[in-house]
Every structure is written in C-alpha cells, then in structure tokens.
Amino acid sequence: MAGNQVLEEAMRAGANAAWDKNWEQAIAAYRRALAESPRHVGALTGLGVAYSGAGQLEAALDAYQRASDLSPDDPVLLEHIGKTQAQLGRGKAAAEAYLASAERYLSQQQATHLALERWQDAARVWPDGVPAHVQLLQYYQRHGQIRQAVEECLTLAHIYQAQGWNDYAVQICQHALKLAPHSPEVLAALDNLRFGERIAVEPGAEMPEEKPEPLAIIEEPAVLPMLETEAVEERGSPVETTCRKALTDLAESVFEDEPAISPSAVAPRLSKAEIDALISRAIDFQTRGEVEEAITAYEKVIEAGVEQPAVHFNLGLLYQKQVRFDAAISQFEIAVHHPEYALGSHFALGECYRARGHIDEALEHFIEVLKMVDLATVRREQADDLIQLYESLANGYIAKGEREQALEFTNSLVGFLGEKGWEDKVIQARQRLDTLSEEGPTLSLAEMLALPGSERILESVALSQEYVKRNMFYTALEECYYALEYAPTYLPIHQQMGQVLMAMKKTNEAVAKFVVIADTYRTRGNIRQAIAVYQRALKVAPMDIAVRAKLIDLLISHGEIDRALEHYLSLADSYYHAAQMDQARDTYQEALRLAPRGDPGRNWEVRILHKIGDIDMQRVDWKGAIDIYEQIRDLAPDDERACLTLMELYYRFNRPEVAIAKLDGLLKIYRESDRTDRIFTILEDAVRERAKDIPLCTRLAQAHLDAGHIEQALEHLDKLGDLLLEAGRAEDAKATIRAIIALRPPNIAAYQQLLDQLESGQ
Hints:
Largest sheet: none
Number of strands: 0
Strand content: under 5%
Helix content: over 70%
Oligomer: single chain
Shape: flat
Number of helices: 40
Low-confidence stretches: 202-235
CATH superfamily of the largest domain: Tetratricopeptide repeat domain
CATH topology of the largest domain: Serine Threonine Protein Phosphatase 5, Tetratricopeptide repeat
C-alpha cells in the first residue's frame, strides 16, 4: 500500500511539474514513479514528454519505445515515437511509426480522422515514401474527395517515375483520369511520361531532390491496390442533387394516368399526351444545354395548368442561368414549399439573392439550408436547441450590421455545401461537434463554418480528448493551445481546456474557466449556451452560490421561470444543509415571490412554503410556522401535512378548539373523496398521541360507527365513557353508554346497570 502511495504522489508531482514546464522536476518525479513500478506505461509516457520538453530527444525516444513495447496497441505512443524520430531527422523511421499509429487508430471506432492525420504526418516526414501516399489516396477516394485523390495520384506517379517504375506511374495517372476525366494536370502528366519528361507536382509539395532507392519492401499488390476499385460517385451541391431528382420525377410523370393539374387552374387546353410531349421535350432541351428552348417548353407546361414542383424548380434553374433572377426567385418560392424540393430551393434562392446583392435575404435562405442539413444529423433531444441557434443566427448578423462577416460566412457555407461529398463531411463534422458538446451546449455547423481553419481546429480538440483518455493531460492542453492560435475566441476550445483541468483534479480552475465561458456566451447573446455552461459548472461545484445566482438571474430574465425556481430551491437547500438557516429562509422567500409566474401544475408556492415552515419549526418560531401553514391551507385545503402540523401547533398554543377545527376540515375532505383509510390512520395516530383527548376519541369512535366496525366502535366508546366520567361530564357519559347499549354488546347487562346508577344519581 505504501508503494502505491509513493507511486501516486510521484505521478501527481510529475504531472504538476510538467504543467509548469519544470522539466527537470518532472523527469525526477517520473523516475521515482518508475522505481516503484518499472512497467508503468503512464510513468514512461510522462517521462518521455518531460525528456522531450527538456530537449533530450534520444532519452525521450527510449522512454516512448519502452512504453509502446508494454502497450503495443496504443496509437498515441507510436505517434510520440514518430514525432521524436522526425525531430531527430530520421524521416523514414518517423513515417513507419506514424503508419503504425494510423493502423492502430483504424481498429478503433470513429478514429478514422486520427488515422488520416498520421498518414499526412508520414507523408510529410518521408515525402518519397509510397505507403503513406497510397493510404491517403484510398482514404480520399473512399470519401469522395476527388481533388485530393488526384493530387495523391500525381505525387505517386512522380515517385514511381523517379524510381524508374514508369509502368506504375502510367497506371496511377490513368486511374487519376478515371476520377477526373478532364484534369489538365493529369493529362499533362501522361504526356510527360510518354515523352520521358519529369512529372510536375502541385506547388508546395515536397519531393525528393535525388532519385530514391527502389522500395523493395513494397510488393506490387500493395503499391496499387486501388486500381480495381469502382469509380467514386460524385455528388454535387443541394441544387445539383435536387435537379437530378426533378428530372427523374418529371420523366416518371409521363407514366401517370393523369397530369398534376392545379385545382385553381382553368380546364387544361392540352391533352395528357400533349403535356407529356412538352415535358419530354423540356427535359431533352435542358439536358442538352439548350436553355431558351427548355424555358419555352416548361412555360407552356405551366400555362397548361400543370402544378409540379419539379417543373417550377427546373424553370427556376434555367431562369437563373440566364441571369433572370427575379423570374427564378418566383419559381423557387413555389418549389420551396414542397419538402423534397425545399433544400435545393433554399440554396438556389440564396444564390439568386446573393447575385442581386441582397445579402440579408441570401443569408436567411443559406442558414435555412444549413439548419435543414444540420437537423438531419442530430439526436431528437438536441433539435430544440439547434433550432433556436439558427433562428437567432441570421438576426444576429443583420442586427449587428456585420455585412463583411455575413459575406464571409455565406462564402464559407456555399463552398462547404458546393463540394463533392459534402454529405459525408456533414456527418463527420457532426460527430466531432457532438464529441465537443458532450458536457456542454449543443453546437451547430454554422459555428464551425464561421471559423477559419475549422477542420484542423476540431481535429486538435478531438486529439486533446484522446490524450485525456490516456491521462496525458499536459499533451492534451498543448493541443488546445495549438488550436487557440488559430481561433482564440472559439469557446469550445476553452471548454475542452476546462474538461482537461477537471481530469487533472484542478476543480477551482475548471469552474473558473466554465464561468468565463458562460459569461462570454451571455455577453454574445447566446443564452441557451450560457445556461448550459453555467449548469456544467454547477455539476462540478454544486455548492457554488455565485454561479447558481448568475444562472437564476439569466433564467428569470429569459422567462424560464420553472428552471429558475428549481435552482432557487437547490441554492436554498445548499444554505440549509450548511446550517445557514437565515440565508436559506431568505432564498426561499425570494423563490416564493417568483412562484406565481411558474407552472401552476407544479405547486411551487406550496412546495416552497413547506420548506419555510420546516425552518420555522426547527427554530421554534411556532407563530411564524402557523402563518406559513395557514397559507398552505388556503392554497391547498387537502394538504394533510399542513393540516396536521397546524393541529399540533394550535395544541401547543392551548387552543384545542382551533386544532380540532383544522382536523375536521381535513376529515371532511377525505369523507367526500371516499378516502376513509386515511381518516382511520390520522385519528388513530392522533389518539395514540393524546389518549385522553375527548374530542379526538369521540371522532375515532364515530368513524368506526359510521363504517360499521362494531367491535372497534364498542372499544373506543368504552374508553370514551371512562374519560367522560373522569371529567365529570355525566350527561355525555350517559349518552355514550346508551350508544354502547344500542350496539348490544355481550355484557349489555353491566352497561345497563351502570346507566341506571348514573340516572339515579348513585
């Protein structure tokens, strides 16, 4: 056990020293940890980080390698090895480590983007290494990123040519031509191969100055494994996708029995055959690029009374090509009301308004496109938050007069959704955003698109999360700082830093970070996000009164009264459990003033008054407690707890008649609602507490009589008679004995004799 404590203390000291960049102290601490546990992977990893920070790269490499030998499936350790080898100038060894790291990442669910990063690292540190470029080509091809795939083909062709493998270079260029049939770069590369000239590569790409050694370790099947794959389907922008659907729908409409005629249209002047012929002609003209003829045909279809969204959408596209934006807008505004055409129509409307210089209108439609795309990717419980985010987004740009920012955002959105394979990118982006918002507010694609270099930033945050899972906290923070260099005001990065601080047990620093984030969201007007982050801070520090007070104010100011009341009660409960009764009561009173604005079905006033009443009872402020419980009785006459507490309090003030009146009111409610079981329970408990209380005993006996419980009634009447005789209330005692005799008990003669004696005055 002592050894474990030494190990834990050493690990903690190492992490803290690394946090402060005291590398020598960190090295010493991790060495102490390894003295206790020589095979401790975390200690070896921390030692590697410390050596690296101190510039002792060979020692760092040795530590990482030992850790990797103990944990061979850990991709992060292999990544550290690759980075250190690269710093030592060993490009090929670094690339091999990066490739091994990527392989490990591929075996983990949803880690493909991290594998991609490692392949890119491998290609960077060893530019003429074939395996990394092959992996990148396969990845880009699978994900429909045609431009990047073609670039990798050209890079591979250059490498093959430099190694004297011209046949392979030709094959890879022919494969690139299948991906991009009209690419001038690929055609030029093939010409160069035919005439023996050196293949040109993309500007900025790193290529070896001299011809590298042949790669004997790469066998033919491993060099070109992608040549037998099918061509990737290229999907275009929402407009192109919707156009293909429109053409398909129109082609299929000719097989329908009747044309889709508008109910408000006059009787069509054309027959079904004539309409079908016009539609077929319009499709033919459109697909052949004969715009004017296609427009004429579609206009005649509409004149015939045909009401199909596909017709309006295609006609809008044709008007748009002729720069007739007003006419195009009128057609898209008809098509946009049909769900299957809404996405493409909103996008096209945005383009038309943008072309006319109406940025505000364009922005509204583009944001609607992004909202539709984003909502299709989120869980149901995220939808409401996301809708509110998009509803406020356009207004935010317009209200602030940020025309330049609006233009930048619009350009980013159009570029994102205009690329081939944008659907896959949306899904990947949503996965990363959801990972970021696990412990915070829902994030939108719009926030990502408004961020320059968003893809790299999200990758850094995702990598930081991976490091946290491996307890590599300092490295996780480094990734956050790297991302902040690109986007210092992007709050999800700061939120990830808060998560890292939490994992490091630096609770106060984490809470402070969360509060700053929430305050910033509030200042920016992002209220739902601010609320979510304040709640995250309270989850960490539930007794933080200042944070809860901020959250309550924010909730009240934005009409979320029930949630504000919940936090009021939590705040007051915190005071209560800390034995700060005055602060607790004051907080409950504040909540009570707000309670009438809450949901009536949640009985806020009654619940809060009970809390205040409990405090008054504990402080022996019985008069104050009576006032509180009387208020509860006015609000909820059937509140049993309030009635019984009032009965007890009035007994303490020696006002039994009022106490009994409160009890009678409750019993009446129970009788009217046929809850007789509660009547017996309440009365029996009361009689047990005050066995000689005549009014209570009378009511219990009467309750049994009313219910037909003869034996129980006789028992309680007998006790009641004794109490009445002891109290000198002879007439009441006689009445009680007569009631007993009427029930004909087994010893009726004895009761009759007692009654005779009382009546004779003996």
